[in-house]
């Protein structure tokens, strides 16, 4: 019987309780605020994110999730005995994250 792991990125905005309840793996989007590097949902909570935004002197900038984050998620799923992985990311036209997820398959 297949065991499926779902991997999403932080723009999916799934609450932490649901991530735990359904065993969903979330990779964080890198964000630079006033020259300082952060990762969404790791460096600060969802609630703290709005404080970070409102206190920023410059407009925060995001970038694609690194391939290594996806490789780590795929490896973790494999070690958990998963036979299949479903990856849901922000749209390919709006971010390079989809490409990172796809290219990570080759590295995995």
Features:
alpha/beta; 4 helices; 108 residues; 6 strands; globular; three-stranded antiparallel β-sheet
Molecular structure report:
The strands form 2 sheets. This protein has a 3-stranded parallel β-sheet, covered by helices on one side. The protein has a 3-stranded antiparallel β-sheet with strand order 4-3-5, with no helix packed on it. With 108 residues, the chain is of the alpha/beta class. The chain contains 4 helices and 6 strands. Helices cover 38% and strands 22% of the residues. Helix 3 (67-79) packs across helix 4 (97-107).
Summed up, the helix count is 4
Q: CA-to-CA gap between the ends?
A: 22 Å
Low-confidence residue ranges: none
Biggest β-sheet strands, sense, barrel: 3 strands, parallel
Helical content stands at: 25-40%
Overall morphology: globular
Order of helices and strands: EHEEEHEHEH
Which SSEs are present, and which pair or pack?
Elements: E1 4-9, H1 16-22, E2 25-27, E3 30-33, E4 36-39, H2 46-55, E5 61-62, H3 67-79, E6 84-88, H4 97-107
Parallel strand pairs: 1-2, 1-6
Antiparallel strand pairs: 3-4, 3-5
Helix pairs in contact: 3-4
Would you kindly provide a brief summary of this structure?
The protein is of the alpha/beta class and about 110 residues long.
